[in-house]
Amino acid sequence: MENSTLIKSSHLLAILLLLLFPDPSTPSPPPSPVSCTNGRTNNCTVTNAYGMFPDRSTCHALKVVYPNSEQELLQFVANGTASKTKMKVVTRFSHSIPKLSCPGGSNGLVISTLNLDDVLNIDKTTMQITVESGITVKALIEAAAKANLVIPYVPYWFGLTIGGLLSTGAHGSSLNGKGSAVHEYVTEMRVVTPAPADENYARVRALKIGDPDLDATKVSLGVLGVISQVTLQLQPMFKRSLTYVTRNDSDLADQAVSFGYQHEFADLAWYPAQRKVLYRKDDRVPVNVSGNGAYEFIGFRPTATLAIQTNRITEKAFETEKDADGKCGYSQFATSTLALLSYGLTNNGIIFTGYPVIGYQNKMEASGGCAFGLEDGLLTACPWDPRIKGTTLFHQTTVSIPLDRVKEFILDLQKLRDLQPAALCGLELYDGVLMRYSKSSSAYLGKEADVLDFDFTYYRSRDPMTPRLYEDFLEEIEQIALFKYGGLPHWGKNRNLAFDGVIKRYKNSQAFLEVKNRYDPEGLFSSEWSDQILGINGSVIVNKAGCALEGLCVCSEDMHCAPDKGYYCRPGKIYEDARVCTYEDSSTGNLKFTS
């Protein structure tokens, strides 16, 4: 074993100790996505929760406002419309990776929903809850639970706001009933949009089930106006019984679709280099079944800053040295540690004693403790907090594959994996390939079919011109998913190339654009980015040196890769139509492979 590997092994031990014995103080909450040099008025910058957009651009705005009510929101939109000011909404933490919250230019207005976070009404008879759009999933779950009600399906991270998650079509995992997308449970919505002068430049549009415009506003990308209030259909409180089972992935292609129908809250975590799959057997059970379990996912808990930095330093060292052996060993350690800590599950809110874990829905469906707490001087934080020097930085490729094509897609990925298993070890450092189920939607920009959503998270360098270890394998997976299988990208995740021409794959895209033109004819809530992804003007593709490394383009010439570092544009290994940045070097001794 080389000295560098010994050093990295000590880093692994340090991380384990820091995970098992975290700092007891409350976590530092994430920073605001908006900062201004002169209070709230001048020279504002807008970013996301990760401190970096896919193209690494800096988003500027002239001003940010914080309405406290729908009436104030109406006035802010009216003022912006009267002055023909570009406007965008920003949420509490701004978790969308693409530039959805950037108004464009430098004179735009940013409208924050931070203070629009109240529960307005809970009707126990109809089992409906009305909330302001800035309320977090955490607060929504807690308010419903006090009335002995639950929202059946939500994303696993409860730091999202209801307005933000609806705008991007965020979802949990289920093929039951209407499926796992939160927008399928919207019964009413109030949206503030621009209006002509004779309507005082802004109006509130109140939409209910049966109004066709609701299918546009349920997943709107923020280009129709500002969601003010949302009414959601809830269900009576129930419990869930969850058991994780690890199996070999030899029959994953055959099992992936059927497993989704066997368990209401099923999902899969695939560790392709280890040839393992973590099956989530998760179903609702009556409230009288014994159990008081909870799920606080390890990756969403407050993490000691030292552990965050150590983790990044270690992974960066593997990348820099092209040490595939080290990265694979590290990934095995990471997945084993998660299993050792039971992924964050407890049977009584304190300790894990064994499966199944049975608990109330409001304690099992989502988590995110690292986002909520008092400032502790960054002793602890969320692992991606951009204020930490040496914080986690990653790309996310999240693509929905129609269920009738999932088997072929998985077989292709396994075929690619078999060429070099070490190429996919990096995915396992980010909890593997998360696979979640979702159903087709009536929303114009929702799912076009019943799908399995594949979530690939992987290393991103601080230097945009630095390739990743096995750059070509991950690029080929991305292109197989998007181009060979026609997968649809998650609106709130992904790199630029995922959105190239994607609007053409939505059968109701023209209906959505018609609503957009009625609600905001001057495009005040549109930006250069939204015009590009909606096919209105321009392209998300940025052809320049190194563009393929960041997903800003698909390489068509060597300069799009990093020829000075030995990475050249080449065809894919199993998908010949792919064009990927492949490492070629006469001295193969610099690239270490696992057996």
Automatic annotation (TrEMBL):
<dbReference type="InterPro" id="IPR007173">
    <property type="entry name" value="ALO_C"/>
</dbReference>
<comment type="pathway">
    <text>Cofactor biosynthesis; L-ascorbate biosynthesis.</text>
</comment>
<feature type="domain" description="FAD-binding PCMH-type">
    <location>
        <begin position="57"/>
        <end position="237"/>
    </location>
</feature>
<keyword id="KW-0732">Signal</keyword>
<dbReference type="Pfam" id="PF04030">
    <property type="entry name" value="ALO"/>
</dbReference>
<protein>
    <recommendedName>
        <fullName>L-gulonolactone oxidase</fullName>
        <ecNumber>1.1.3.8</ecNumber>
    </recommendedName>
</protein>
<keyword id="KW-0560">Oxidoreductase</keyword>
<keyword id="KW-0060">Ascorbate biosynthesis</keyword>
<dbReference type="GO" id="GO:0016020">
    <property type="term" value="C:membrane"/>
</dbReference>
<dbReference type="Pfam" id="PF22906">
    <property type="entry name" value="GULLO2-like_3rd"/>
</dbReference>
<dbReference type="InterPro" id="IPR036318">
    <property type="entry name" value="FAD-bd_PCMH-like_sf"/>
</dbReference>
<dbReference type="InterPro" id="IPR006094">
    <property type="entry name" value="Oxid_FAD_bind_N"/>
</dbReference>
<dbReference type="Pfam" id="PF01565">
    <property type="entry name" value="FAD_binding_4"/>
</dbReference>
<dbReference type="GO" id="GO:0071949">
    <property type="term" value="F:FAD binding"/>
</dbReference>
<feature type="signal peptide">
    <location>
        <begin position="1"/>
        <end position="27"/>
    </location>
</feature>
<dbReference type="InterPro" id="IPR010030">
    <property type="entry name" value="GULO_Plant"/>
</dbReference>
<comment type="similarity">
    <text>Belongs to the oxygen-dependent FAD-linked oxidoreductase family.</text>
</comment>
<dbReference type="InterPro" id="IPR050432">
    <property type="entry name" value="FAD-linked_Oxidoreductases_BP"/>
</dbReference>
<dbReference type="GO" id="GO:0003885">
    <property type="term" value="F:D-arabinono-1,4-lactone oxidase activity"/>
</dbReference>
<dbReference type="InterPro" id="IPR055154">
    <property type="entry name" value="GULLO2-like_C"/>
</dbReference>
<dbReference type="GO" id="GO:0019853">
    <property type="term" value="P:L-ascorbic acid biosynthetic process"/>
</dbReference>
<dbReference type="InterPro" id="IPR016166">
    <property type="entry name" value="FAD-bd_PCMH"/>
</dbReference>
<dbReference type="InterPro" id="IPR016169">
    <property type="entry name" value="FAD-bd_PCMH_sub2"/>
</dbReference>
<dbReference type="GO" id="GO:0050105">
    <property type="term" value="F:L-gulonolactone oxidase activity"/>
</dbReference>
